[in-house]
Each structure stands twice: as structure tokens, then as C-alpha cells.
Amino acid sequence: MLTPDIFGILAETAPDRRGEIQLTDGLRRLRQRRPMYAVEFEGKRFDTGDKLGFLKATVEFALARPDLAADFRSYLKGLNI
């Protein structure tokens, strides 16, 4: 979980060679200003900063929801791609 002070740091962070501002660069700068803490996470991780990762997360979350799963699964099966 990040605190709001990361946004000011990201605003000051230069883009990388692809033109993207990297959260990890901002976290390195934040660590120089104050202590940081982490929580060990057990479970599935999705890289939602990646287009395919975002799509995978969306599909898996939709299929895990009781109110959406059946209709969404039916939709996916009906795709003729």
C-alpha cells in the first residue's frame, strides 16, 4: 500500500528510455526520504501495467465473481475468433 507522498515523488521522476515513469524509480527515491514497510503477499499476482496482464486479471476476476461468472463464461465460449 502506498501513501499519497508517492505522487509528488512520481511527478519529479524522469521517464525511462521508453517514456514511462517507473514506480520502482519513485520507490527508490521515497526510500531515501523515509522508511518503507512491506507485507509478504501469498496469492496470485497480475502485472496490470502490461496490456496482456491487465486483460488476464480482468478475465480471472470476472470469472471469480458469482454475479458475472456464468454470463461471462458463456460470452467467452461464444466468441468465434
Shape: elongated
Counted up, domains total: 2
Radius of gyration: 18 Å
Percent helix, as a range, is 40-55%
Major beta-sheet overview: none
Mean pLDDT: 94
Helix and strand arrangement:
Layout: H1 5-12, H2 23-33, H3 51-64, H4 69-78
Would you kindly provide a written description of the structure presented here, covering whatever features stand out?
The protein has helices spanning 5-12, 23-33, 51-64, 69-78. The chain has 2 domains: 1-39, no CATH class; 46-81, no CATH class. With 81 residues, the chain is mostly helical. 53% of the residues lie in helices and 0% in strands. The N and C termini lie far apart (39 Å). Helix 1 (5-12) crosses helix 2 (23-33). The chain has 4 helices and no strands.
Descriptors for this entry?
81 residues; mainly alpha; 4 helices; 0% strand; elongated
Structure summarized in a few sentences:
This protein has 81 residues and is an all-alpha fold. The chain has 4 helices and no strands.
